[in-house]
Automatic annotation (TrEMBL):
It holds the Pfam family BTB. PANTHER family: BTB DOMAIN-CONTAINING PROTEIN, BTB DOMAIN-CONTAINING PROTEIN-RELATED. It comes from the Eukaryota. This is BTB domain-containing protein. Residues 9-62 form the BTB domain. The lineage of its organism: Eukaryota, Fungi, Dikarya, Ascomycota, Pezizomycotina. InterPro entries: BTB/POZ_dom, SKP1/BTB/POZ_sf. Gene3D superfamilies: Potassium Channel Kv1.1, Chain A.
Length: 198
């Protein structure tokens, strides 16, 4: 029989995750310890999940966790989102998306390419984190970024990201004054007459 402390832990877990509820109520009848090993999950990220279970709060780090690593402040929340997505923890996913949105709204910070690629590699096509990341790129990544050869190569290598960003850019163009086809002909569409040499 589970102690009150264990029962309390499991209650939080079961309320948050249908995966864990199903796993602990069906597959673990033969496991009197009622334990589960999750070797593929990052321990630090799982600890953040457990912390969220008890406090129902998560804040995006103000700076990268380790200044020596080439990741950014968004890698940790994206990793936590992926873990929450894996175990069906919808409320945590919504908290993370909301926190990322708030940070971006206040700072215009954009995740690095490695963070975006990680999210796309570990989530499904309709994932909300993909929508947020694509919107971040469409809104806050400047034209110069898209013109750099290294970034063009990255976008070609990550066609799913490219497509999402193009859709988001198209939506922004539609929203901005109805797009270029609801006004007069934009100057950039008109070729200037070449000066003749006489």
């Amino acid at each position: 029989m589970a102690t009150p402390a264990k029962r309390n832990h499991l209650t939080y877990l079961f309320e948050a995750s249908p995966f864990f509820k199903a796993a602990f109520t069906s597959d673990f009848r033969e496991n009197p310890e009622r334990t589960m090993t999750l070797p593929e999950d990052d321990e630090t990220i799982f600890e953040l999940f457990v912390d969220w279970l008890y406090h129902q709060r998560y804040d995006v780090p103000s700076t990268p966790n380790d200044p020596e690593t080439p990741c950014d402040r968004f890698m940790q929340p994206v990793q936590l989102f992926v873990l929450a997505d894996k175990y069906g923890v919808r409320n945590l996913k919504n908290v993370i998306v909301s926190q990322i949105h708030s940070v971006v709204k206040m700072s215009s910070d954009v995740p690095k390419e490695a963070t975006i690629a990680y999210a796309y590699e570990h989530t499904s096509q309709n994932s909300t984190i993909r929508k947020v990341l694509a919107d971040m790129m469409a809104c806050y990544v400047g034209r110069n970024w898209f013109e750099r050869a290294v970034n063009q190569t990255w976008l070609r290598d990550h066609h799913d990201i490219s497509m999402d960003v193009m859709v988001r850019l198209a939506e922004r163009a539609e929203d901005a004054y109805g797009g270029p086809f609801y006004r007069g002909v934009p100057e950039e569409y008109v070729e200037e007459e070449e000066e003749s040499e006489e």
